[in-house]
Amino acid sequence: MEKHDKFYGSVLNFFENAAQHTNLHRGILEQIRACNSVYRMRFPIKVGKDVKVIEAYRVQHSHHRLPTKGGIRYSNHVNQEEVMALATLMSFKCAIVDVPFGGAKGGVKVNPWEYSEYELEKITRRYTTELVKRNMIGPSIDVPAPDYGTGAREMAWIYDTYRAFNEKEIDAAGCVTGKPVNQGGIRGRTEATGRGVFYGIREACNNKADMKKLGLEPGIAGKTMVVQGLGNVGSYTASICQEEGDAIIVGVSEVEGAIYDPKGIDIHKLLEFRKETGSIINYPGAKSFPKDDRKTVLEFECDILVPAALENQITIDNADRIKAKIIGEAANGPITSEGEAILLKKGKLIIPDVFLNAGGVTVSYFEWLKNLSHIRFGRMDKRFNQNTYDNFVTLVENMTGKKVNNLEREFLTKGGDEIDIVRSGLEETMVTSYNYTREIMSRKRKVTDLRTAAFVNAIEKIGSDYMAMGIFP
User: Fold this and answer.
1) 3.40.50.10860, 3.90.1150.10, 1.20.1250.20, 3.40.50.150: which CATH number matches 39-183?
2) Distance of CA 227 to the CA centre of its chain
């Protein structure tokens, strides 16, 4: 059997577990399993008086649909197999939420906090130049996005660099997503992954049969939640679950340590506290755990555990100590295949990353569509809808002889802004995808967990694309 690092090996194990529940030819399965293109690059960057050689990657896992799509992470832990694993997950993620992309991923082996903004800009622009030279970026070829260690700033640099090489391309803005709104980005992209996690967890908690098995009441309201990681995904997941879902955040961890308070932690106050002090440690009213014990957050007492940091957090070594009844994988690959086997045996409900954190690529898809259509969502119909609703309310007032106040009228007649349309589209995507995954479990009796069902969903969709090409029997 092939030997791979723990993360990529787990992804392949998950694939094989699901593949046996499909009727696809082994040749198609081998094509779906493999990464189609792996580009490893090295380039020099001047840093002060020194020259540093930067190692970077771009992996395109599947070309069954184009463009390929996937984020770029900046981390000194980046390696080829990690990027291959992430690219593979992206193919399945896009298929599960019906986003018409193949999967891809990029990685630059740097610690972004060790470089100045100017140095990061040089690294980003040089990385983009390498992709342009190899024809591995473009609105119809491969569309990067933010990931760990990158954000809107880096995407703006990528866009500007690509445009410099393709100044006459009318759809150049579609070469990358996650851009600032004033440079072709879309409202709601920054919160997208965290909001998608909320919609996915909420839908899972609304399933009465699953909650009954776990000994829980339906609904997310009142359930205790622990979040590992307060980056973009973790902070938005926690704040939205708290505000819109009425979940009770009882535990949080970050690089500096972890805190726990069974009575609940106000996530906004915690973020302010960390901004002021530089740490979550010693947050008032909560028990603090030092940096060396921060992974104990995974073992805190709670209903829902949300690993929102890095891969390989729950393994064969600690899986049997997890107390949460529901684990929502906001991060990519936080549970190894060996760890998952233990959790499933204990009756835990695992909402897999390949579905749950697909909110980012879903809203990236909306941004890409916006860039290709050259029009902001809501611009064409917001006022028309608002006027129609206003006329309807006026008609009801005239027929009933009763009047609504200005606040009620504003609520009833509001047309959809871009952010409203994006959130609505994301909610529809996550709800529909979750229920279709559950339907696969009902249809295929031997599929007994959500991850396998999600992988079956993705494999069958990708396989049907390859079969439609007439290449395979």
Assistant:
1) 3.40.50.10860
2) 15
